[in-house]
Structure formats: C-alpha cells, structure tokens
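Box 3.1. Reading complex inputs
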Amino acid sequence: MSLAGVLFYVLALIAVLGGVGVVISKEPVRSVLSLVGVMLALAGLFLMLSAQFVFAVQIIVYAGAVMVLFLFVVALLGPIREGPSGPLKLHWAYLVVVLAPLTIGLWALLNQIQFRKPDGLDITFFGTVEQIGYGLFTTYLYPFELTSILLLIAAVGAIYLSRGGRSAEEEREGVEGRSV
Amino acid sequence: MSDYGQLQIGNAGSVDAVQFLLLGAVLFVIGAIGVIIRRNPLVILVSIELMLNAVNLTLITFARQLHNTEGQLFALLTMVVAAAEAVVGLAVLVDVFRTRDVDDVDELSELKG
C-alpha cells in the first residue's frame, strides 16, 4: 500500500474511533475532547485533499475556538450525568428500518459511482489562500458578506440569551432603586 | 475508461475518492446516531458538530476530485454557520441550565401544545 493509503487509513481510524468516543462517552468533557481528535484527523485529511486553507481554518477556528467554547460551557455547567435510559419499544426494529436502506443505498451508490472528468484547473495552486480569496471576493461575494451578518446576529443573540434571567420589571425597579 | 476517482496525493501515491466519501458517510451516521440516542443536550450539540464536519469532508473530496474550489468555499461557509449554530445553541443551553437542572432533553417540553 502506498504512503498516502497508509496515511489515509491511520487518519480515518482516528476519526472513526473519535466519532464513536463522542457518542458513547459518559462524561460530556470526553465527548468534546474526542471531537477535537476527530477534527484534527479531518484536518489532516483536508490537507491530503490539497485544501490547505480549509486545513488551517479547521484547526484554528474549529478545533481551537469552537471546541474551547464547548469546554467552557462544560466547565460552567458542571458534571451532568445521564440517568439510565428508559425502555424504548422496538428499538432494534427502528435501527434496522433506518440503517438497512441507508447501508444498501449507500453501497449501491458508491458501487456504481462514475466520477466526472476534472475541470482541468491547475492542481499545484489548488486550495491556496489566493484561490479561496479569489472565489470569496468575486463569484461568492454575497454569500460571504451574508455570513458576516449571520455572525453578528449570532453574537447579539448569544449576548442577549446569556445576559441573565432578569425580567423587564426587575430591570426598571433596579433603575428606580438606584435613582432614589 | 480512465479512472477519475483516483486522487493523487502529492508524490505519495493515490487514494480512491470513494474511501473519503465512505468515511464521511460513516462519520455522519455516527453523529446522527449520537443525536438520536443521547439525551444530554450538550452531547447532542457535539454530535451535530460531528455531522457538519463529515459533510465538510464530502464537500472537500468532491472539490478535489473535480479540481473545483467551490466545494472548499462551501465548506468554509458551513464552518461559519456551524460556529454560529454552536454559539446560539450553547447560549440557549446555559440559559436553560441557569433556571433548572436538566439532564434529559425530553424534560424540556414546555412548548408542547
């Protein structure tokens, strides 16, 4: 097997084991740390697929910032333990009904897949910051600008939600109290 | 028929694009199972992040296979949306947990008609 194949299987194994760890961990903090492992493995796969910029963003923004946010919330909320799960009737039947068509469909799809001829873009400069930036500021300028509005809305919404549970009446009383 | 599905990885040989797609599908299904079977709201959010990452892998695989950067641009936009979703989701979570102790999302059923 070629070096690329070995690298792929190592990273894929880390990603799948991390994914399973996310789902089966009893402690939320282990789930979050498993997800960090998945994201780092996926970042390596992105690099193999010559997506250098996405690789950097994945590590800095995702594995760095977003996961730190998750860890802060875990630390803030303290340990949450899930109680024993209640009985779900026919859960094996549900599993088969959901997974069988998915597996068969996926297998059929990927077995029959025929890849289109590549567009012929120069692969040497593929995925560089220059190319990504060119795409973001020409063809996809509007989506790019819309994401800034989305981020602003998310930031304002998060501040509003975590501002505290004081009702409007309490706020007014507080202001009057101070003025007196 | 020439095989366009074989992706050259630098000088280190080639990997079949189907393998990347299968990995993305497997991770997506693991995340979906996590969303369904876990009842801790925080773990559900983490599983959703896992699903979004799996989709990013698929987008970037096809971008590489087609030599087309648009897939990578979409992956970047997905990351922005995922970050916004995580921020708002966690803020809602903190707000809910401030007023009471919840260890099961099924307990949050006040909006039921």
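In summary: Chain A is about 75% helix and 0% strand.
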